[in-house]
Design brief:
Layout (H helix, E strand, L loop, with lengths): L13 H20 L5 H8 L9 H24 L1 H21 L3 H29 L2 H33 L4 H19 L14 H12 L2 H31 L6 H12 L2 H12 L1 H25 L4 H18 L4 H9 L6 H25 L6 H18 L8
Helix pairs in contact: 1-5, 1-6, 1-7, 3-4, 3-5, 3-15, 4-5, 4-7, 5-15, 6-10, 6-11, 6-14, 9-13, 9-14, 9-15, 9-16, 10-13, 11-12, 12-13, 12-14, 12-16
Length: 406
């Protein structure tokens, strides 16, 4: 179902709009995944006494992004979508430049928080743009196709990062972030009209903000969706924090990690197409429950295999590879559908709803992921055990999601 009440005077073709939104979403993936090959060098250079602290390069960005989502949505409800995306991009660029020149890990982490703060603009406001133009299962379908673009970036980002490190050193990755931002924001500036007309914007005052926030927080469907997303982000960020050390320290495949991770991302790029084909017919809720149920089964099975210690290293590696690919693939049936389900009743305050959902899920999910990453002990057991627990809880909550209309 297309929501025409908030359509812009001029619209891109759906194909170009999906591609552009996919690139906006991918700001996050590129900013995280391109850093993965740099973690060993960052640890050796800036934190040799505590190498696990290098993982905070990832979580500091996510924490900044989570904080940024608190303000990006309400600001876009008041001032329009495009202007807030441009503002966020400016902060993102400044953060990348500061990280490039920062002499210590602590200062890089501070710069990454600022970079994440700015990335909240493209991430949250682009989702509100989708809700401005689409609703319900059709929105879930559009987001699924955009996720296909989003999922392509993890396939190439570690390779880009590894290539940059080999040629120019790990700090040059921050310059790649500048280039990416210039390209994506330039595309938006030249091609995408404003999707929130001035008459439909909401005044930015404490009373309006408070009323909108309370409306979001009191809506059962929105909050159930958000809590499930917290657990899913905990799985994702925990995996991103641990996957490179597992490949390197546990299985001795650190040098080839970008290729393996790219293969995982390629495998994970197919499910968004499947979700897009099924969601209009089946709805969001059944697909969410099926994906989480499969995650429970696979994680418990993998945990039992790792704890038994019966498989030799090579066989154990393939189990971990398949499990990781399956976990990323499952997000194609959960995150987009959960966002569509949560935003469905919130079209009149899509920016605020995107912010509240994004801030809560990102901040709490990143915190869970950081804790999981710090428990790395040279084996995949802490990660797989944590994902098993998170997926069981998420599945139980998903069974309480209300049925949505078409």
């Amino acid at each position: 179902m297309t929501d025409t009440t908030a359509a812009a005077p001029k619209r891109l073709s759906q194909g170009e709009f999906i591609a552009l939104m996919g690139v906006m979403f991918a700001t996050i993936a590129f900013s995280i995944d391109a850093m993965l090959p740099a973690l060993p060098e960052i640890a050796a250079e800036l934190s040799p006494e505590a190498p696990n602290n290098a993982q905070l390069i990832l979580t500091s960005f996510v924490i900044g992004m989570g904080a940024g989502t608190l303000v990006a949505g309400p600001l876009s409800d008041a001032f329009g979508r495009r202007s807030i995306i441009f503002l966020g991009a400016g902060l993102y660029v400044i953060g990348a430049l500061l990280a490039y020149v920062a002499p210590s890990l602590e200062l890089i982490l501070a710069a990454r928080v600022l970079q994440g703060l700015g990335a909240a603009g493209p991430r949250i406001v682009s989702l509100a743009m989708v809700r401005d133009l689409y609703a319900g299962r059709e929105m879930a379908r559009v987001v699924s196709f955009a996720m296909l673009v989003f999922m392509a970036f993890p396939a190439i980002a570690p390779l880009i990062g590894a290539g940059i490190i080999a040629a120019f050193g790990w700090r040059a990755i921050f310059l790649a972030f500048l280039l990416f931002s210039f390209v994506s924001i330039g595309w938006l500036a030249l091609r995408q009209p404003e999707t929130l007309p001035a008459p439909e914007r909401r005044a930015l005052n404490p009373t309006t903000i408070r009323a909108s926030a309370i409306e979001v927080l009191r809506h059962r469907q929105v909050m159930l969706s958000t809590v499930i997303q917290i657990l899913i982000f905990g799985m994702l960020f925990g995996t991103l924090s641990s996957v490179q050390p597992v490949f390197d320290i546990t299985y001795g495949r650190g040098d080839s990690f970008p290729l393996w991770f790219g293969g995982i991302a390629i495998i994970s790029a197919g499910p968004p197409l499947i979700n897009a084909a099924l969601v209009v017919r089946l709805g969001m809720r059944p697909l969410i429950r099926a994906a989480l149920g499969a995650q429970v089964i696979l994680s418990l099975l993998a945990l039992a295999i790792f704890l038994s210690g019966l498989l030799p290293g090579d066989s154990s590696f393939w189990i971990f590879l398949i499990w990781t690919a399956a976990m990323f693939a499952a997000t194609s049936f959960t995150l987009g559908n959960l966002n569509a389900l949560g935003l469905e009743p919130m079209g009149h305050i899509a920016g605020m709803a995107s912010s509240v959902m994004g801030a809560i899920s990102t901040l709490f999910g990143a915190s869970l992921g950081a804790i999981v990453g710090l428990f790395f002990n040279g084996t995949p057991v802490p990660l797989v055990a944590a994902v098993s627990v998170f997926s069981i809880i998420a599945y139980a909550i998903a069974r309480q999601l209300p049925r949505e209309g078409r």
